[in-house]
Amino acid sequence: MFSEVLYPTKASLLTLSSEGPYMDIAKWNKSYETGNKVVDAQHQQLFRMVNALHAAILENRSKDLLMPTLEKLANYTIEHFHSEEALMAEVNYPALAVHKWKHEDLTHEVEELVGKYKSGQVVLTVTLSNFLANWLQHHIKEDDMDLVRYLQAQAKSAAASSSGS
Ligand SMILES: [Fe+2]
Questions:
Q1: 98: CATH
Q2: H helix or E strand, kind and range, residue 111
Q3: pLDDT in tens, 42-87
Q4: Structural domain span for residue 36
Q5: How far apart are the CA of 127 and the centre of ligand 1, in A?
Q6: Which of 67, 75, 134, 162 has its CA 20 to 30 A from that of 115?
């Protein structure tokens, strides 16, 4: 039951979004597709995890159940950021520093929140899941899309120079 909240199956996601009591807060659609398979798969997983956190908050789950959901999301987010940053470094992406700064900014905010939640200074409300869904959606459309456009331009010029030689 709990693992289904953390890693919803396709069927349970459908239930959550169309028939269940809770609407998905982060709805995936084609406009979030970057065309980079790895990045897209990670983003989709982040959407699922934000939705799982949102549902768990709405269900008023106890701290024992909410904490691992929040920590899994935080850890996966950091993993995803690192993989994007490695990709950016690999291609000498000119906006790496700014993009990385945005990742670090969110990471610090989430780490601070996890600490406060652990020590009982704050409670988790849908303000958090709303914030995370919005952050993710804006970040994909504004920052990750720029990165993918750069990757595509690089690939194109590499193809052009190899066919020209
Ligand atoms: Fe990013």
A1: 1.20.120.50
A2: helix 96-118
A3: 999 999 999 999 999 999 999 999 999 999 999 999 999 999 999 9
A4: 2-157
A5: 22
A6: 134
